[in-house]
Amino acid sequence: MKKFPDHIVQTDGKFDANIKRYPTNLGAPSFEPIVTDKSDRVKANKYFESRLNELREDYKQLVGEYNWTKLVYQSTYNFQPILGEHYHLYENDDKDLFLSLIGPNEWDRKYIGTFKLLNNGKWQII
Question: How do the domains of the chain map onto residue ranges?
Answer without folding.
Answer: 41-125
